[in-house]
Design a protein that fits this description.
The complex is a heterodimer of chains A (about 100) and B (about 120). Chain A has strands at about 5, 10, 20-25, 30-35, 45-50, 50-55, 60-65, 70-75, 85-90, 100-104. By secondary structure, chain A is mainly beta. In chain A, strand 5 (about 45-50) and strand 6 (about 50-55) form a beta hairpin. Chain B has about 120 residues and is mainly beta. Helices cover about 0% and strands about 50% of the residues of chain B. Chain B has no helices and eleven strands. Classes of the chains: A mainly beta (about 100), B mainly beta (about 120).
């Protein structure tokens, strides 16, 4: 199962609404997770089961989708959200290529 | 507090072996599946291998199948990755990660800080 993410990178401002898309090469039901990784740090789980917010993650993060098409939305981008975001399918655990979010 | 501490990385020549360890604390280790994920310098995340709570289910990425062996010792709260026939393309930061459940299709909720493996002559 291959995952693609779009865009590969984006520039945004604090307060912007940001949407990242992840597409699977075949249906994976809701077996998808989203992670955030900052430079020099380990990845951090944000969303699992496509839309369930991990404990302690701010509510401005949300996930949706099922089957082959998924989205991660940040409703109002904060300075600490500038990072790279990865989706992961949980059937065979492969990751998407990542989306880098940086400051406009 | 959940802690995962990897060790065993270093510089190794192509074709040689290395064994990584991950020491776990702050949770009941034998209640959860565990995984290894790697990240080559400047690249994305790559799942390497995973093992269920009782070692009854084990999986590998195609890129390491037949060369790497994952194992765990629940009595020692430890996860291992035996890496043989190492190649330059195995150079990466190797993370130990805890799954949310004991086996199956569950995300990774805690990660270590990683141990760097460099394969070079």
């Amino acid at each position: 199962i291959q995952l693609t993410q779009s865009p590969s990178s984006l520039s945004a401002s604090v307060g912007d609404r940001v949407t990242i898309t992840c597409r699977a090469s075949q249906g994976i039901s809701s077996y998808l997770a989203w992670y955030q990784q900052k430079p020099g740090k380990a990845p951090k789980l944000l969303i699992y089961a496509a839309s369930t917010l991990q404990s302690g993650v701010p509510s401005r993060f949300s996930g949706s989708g099922s089957g082959t098409d998924f989205t991660l939305t940040i409703s109002s981008l904060q300075p600490e959200d500038f990072a790279t975001y990865y989706c992961q399918q949980l059937n065979s655990y492969g990751f998407g290529p990542g989306t880098k979010v940086d400051i406009k | 507090e959940v802690q995962l501490v990897e060790s065993g990385g270093g510089l190794v020549q192509p074709g040689r072996s290395l064994r990584l360890s991950c020491a776990a604390s702050g949770f009941t280790f034998d209640d959860y599946a565990m995984h290894w994920v790697r990240q080559a310098p400047g690249k994305g995340l790559e799942w390497v291998s995973g093992i269920s709570w009782n070692s009854g289910s084990i999986g590998y990425a195609d890129s390491v199948k037949g060369r790497f062996t994952i194992s765990r010792d629940n009595a020692k709260n430890s996860l291992y990755l035996q890496m043989n026939s190492l190649r330059a393309e195995d150079t990466a930061l190797y993370y130990c990660a805890k799954a949310r459940r004991m086996s199956g299709t569950f995300a990774f909720d805690y990660w270590g800080q990683g141990t760097l493996v460099t394969v070079s002559s």
